[in-house]
Amino acid sequence: MPRSTSAEILGEPLTINKLVLKNRIILGPMAVLQPTKDGRLSEQSIAFLKRRAKGGASMAIVGGSSANDWAWNEAPFFPNVRLDKDEFVPELKRLADELHAEGTAVFGQLFPSFGRMGVPRNGQWPIAASPKGVVMGKVGFPEGVYVPGGRVTPPPKEATVEQIKQFERDVVDAARRVKAAGWDGVEIAAHMCYFYASFLSPLSNQRTDEYGGTAENRARALRDAVAAVRAEVGPDYPVGVRMSVNDHVPGGQDEQGFAEVAAHVVKGGADFIAMTDANYESMGINAPSASGNMLRHGEAKAFREAVGPDVRLFLSSTPNVQEAAGAIEDGLVDASMIARQLLIDPDYPNKVIQGRESEIVWKNPKDNAIFRSLMTNVPIWSKQNPELGHEHPSAVLPTRGQKLFIWAAGNGFLMRIADIFARAGKRMKGQPTGPLH
């Protein structure tokens, strides 16, 4: 029997619990939605997501969404979508209606805290599994992205058991609102250096209580949150997690360690795992220029062996159509989760499924201006996709000064000079800097 084509494989429906997606290409979460200053979905938020739905994405995950006031206060990117207020449900329902009209499902990504990446604000100090900050240097980022002088986030405070349980209750409340708004499922954020992620790896978890030590203990906070959400939304509503799969830093956890943790997490009742590679200390791997690293490095294989065939696995950072389709056909993963490529070409899903791969506008892997914009809270834009960032007339556009700043922030010569001065200034003040490689 002849091997199915890539278009046929990626065009197949996918069932997650009782939900049937029309194809296997999912829009991954990104902090590009331009919500209102008080955290409501804006006209631009809805237009951006609807444009990707029209382009054929079978599901959209609304990223970086605050499950409580704590996450809203400390978010490193601002503003973000709030899922912690009942009065915001009408806007959430409108988004569901708009995407459902295009045949696209919508999931909420729940953040009760940004953990090690949280920003001290309004008298609130970030908390995480253990008091370990994030160390970022210029080499850990993608090509064309620099952090002059490096950056070390303030060490968070160790979360108390009561705080862990309060965040669990907050996630449950947010999931209840998302379901009431007609959204199709939820995803609990446990990736990068965020709150639940800080428990999963020995790199960031040095606890000696029931939340530290063994893989089962390190999985406990996330597994309990999944179980609590499952109890709230019922057996038929899709619930999943977004997990890191490999730290890719010295002293970090590899794919086998994360897969072992994942096997405990899914026992809480998770239907899927959206896999994310690396963390903020290894961003060059998290946002790679090459497609399919999780396949070559073995992370997808390790997770599949750990969680079995019934838990859906979403593969990220693999825009190469043949690689993604091959991984699905081989049973390693169940869907391809695309983010940056859908900024440049929102019609990528339709083009893939309709066999029009030659028409895809490919993201330039060396152009990370959008990434620099996200890091600095500057509205996004793209020469490759002129409509990006203003899918609705009300969208906030970058100023000339902001565009010039983003250009300068990607200029290697200027950033090397800035790095020298920034490090010198930090040494004079006795402040730590990120690693210089």
Please outline the major beta sheet: 8 strands, parallel, barrel
Gross CATH architecture: Alpha-Beta Barrel
Tell me the fraction of residues in β-strands, as a range: 5-15%
CATH topology: TIM Barrel
| N-end to C-end Cα span | 52 Å
Specify the overall morphology. globular
Rg (CA only): 20 Å
As laid out across the biggest beta sheet, the strand order is: 3-4-5-10-11-12-13-14
Q: How would you classify the helix and strand content by structural class?
A: alpha/beta
Given the structure, what is the number of helices? 17
Helix content range of the residues, please? Answer: 25-40%
> Strand tally, please?
14
As residue ranges, the low-confidence spans are none
* Top CATH class: Alpha Beta
Description of the structure:
- The protein has 437 residues and is an alpha/beta fold.
- The chain has a single domain (6-429), classed as Aldolase class I (TIM Barrel, Alpha-Beta Barrel).
- 37% of the residues lie in helices and 13% in strands.
- It is built from 17 helices and 14 strands.
- The strands form four sheets. The protein has an eight-stranded parallel β-barrel with strand order 3-4-5-10-11-12-13-14, surrounded by six helices.
- Helix 7 (215-233) packs parallel to helix 8 (255-265) and helix 8 (255-265) packs parallel to helix 11.
- The longest helix is centred in the middle third of the chain and has 20 residues, at 161-180.
- It is globular, with a radius of gyration of 20 Å.
- It starts with 5 loop residues before the first helix and ends in an 8-residue tail after the last helix.
- 53% of the residues are buried.
- The model has no long low-confidence stretch (mean pLDDT 91).
